[in-house]
């Protein structure tokens, strides 16, 4: 059970961007400067947290959740009820496959109205770092972002509609096979970008049908963003 209120605490969800602290927004940095405690995700920019600020590490990896989501919600509520200024620092944007909506709902149910500071989502920034525009006149006019852990669902299959898969390394093969089975062109240009915008960034490209084998052969590892669509051929990394 959560503790009773002891002071006017607050919760701010901050999107930390795709990795480098330099891509954290000014509003996000200001929230961190005021924070008493930072509840930190694995892919959030830890080096943006001011020295001396308490950090509660709740980072998750595929198959290993140090702290489950319900417990994270309780941490936010308990810390705020103790009168503390809490920043929930996430990678990317809190509302793009970041479970920010669940945390906001939990806080509101507890009588706490959180503030959300948007961040630069890796779904857009990481492809850009690889020279891949998600939309391009005459090539693609829309894009869809999907979670690699969930069902593929009913998606536009034309090469002129870009698909961006987050958290999709472990499920790359079934995702690609499902899309091909549903009619997506197996020769659609495809890319997987590891450690986007970080010193270890690596871009692997191939026709979509070959991407799972190429990724396995080259040892692709998360964190990575997968891009499927004709816009991949605009990247200098595309080798056809």
TrEMBL record:
| Entry keywords, A to Z | Methyltransferase, Porphyrin biosynthesis, S-adenosyl-L-methionine, Transferase
Q: What is its EC number?
A: 2.1.1.107
Task: Give the InterPro entries listed for this entry.
Answer: 4pyrrol_Mease (IPR000878), 4pyrrol_Methylase_sf (IPR035996), 4pyrrole_Mease_sub1 (IPR014777), 4pyrrole_Mease_sub2 (IPR014776), CobA/CysG_C (IPR006366), Siro_Cobalamin_biosynth (IPR050161)
Keyword Nuclease present in the record's keywords: the answer is no
Q: Which domain of life is it from?
A: Bacteria
Please state every residue range assigned to the domain named Tetrapyrrole methylase: 11-209
Q: Where is this region: Disordered?
A: 1-20
Which Pfam families does the record associate with it? TP_methylase
Query: Which principal EC class is assigned to this enzyme?
Result: transferase
Instruction: Name the Gene Ontology molecular function terms of this record.
Output: uroporphyrin-III C-methyltransferase activity
Task: Please state what the protein is called.
Answer: uroporphyrinogen-III C-methyltransferase
């Amino acid at each position: 059970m959560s503790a009773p209120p002891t002071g006017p605490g607050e919760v701010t969800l901050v999107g930390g961007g795709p990795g480098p602290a330099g891509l954290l927004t000014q509003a996000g940095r200001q929230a961190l400067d005021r924070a008493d405690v930072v509840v930190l995700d694995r892919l959030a920019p830890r080096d943006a947290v001011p020295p001396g600020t308490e950090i509660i590490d709740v980072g998750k990896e595929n198959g290993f959740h140090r702290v489950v989501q319900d417990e994270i919600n309780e941490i936010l509520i308990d810390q705020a009820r103790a009168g503390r200024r809490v920043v929930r620092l996430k990678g990317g944007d809190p509302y793009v496959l970041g479970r920010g909506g669940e945390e906001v709902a939990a806080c509101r149910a507890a009588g706490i109205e959180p503030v959300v500071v948007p961040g630069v989502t890796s779904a857009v920034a990481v492809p850009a770092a690889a020279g891949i525009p998600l939309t391009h006149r005459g090539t693609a006019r829309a894009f869809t972002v999907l979670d690699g852990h969930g069902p593929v669902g009913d998606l536009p299959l034309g090469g002129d509609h870009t698909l961006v898969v987050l958290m999709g390394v472990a499920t790359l093969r079934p995702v690609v096979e499902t899309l091909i089975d549903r009619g997506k062109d197996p020769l659609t240009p495809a890319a997987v970008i590891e450690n986007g915008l970080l010193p270890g960034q690596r871009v692997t490209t191939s026709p979509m049908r070959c991407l799972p084998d190429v990724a396995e052969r080259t040892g692709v590892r998360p964190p990575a963003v997968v891009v499927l669509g004709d816009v991949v051929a605009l990247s200098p990394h595309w080798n056809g």
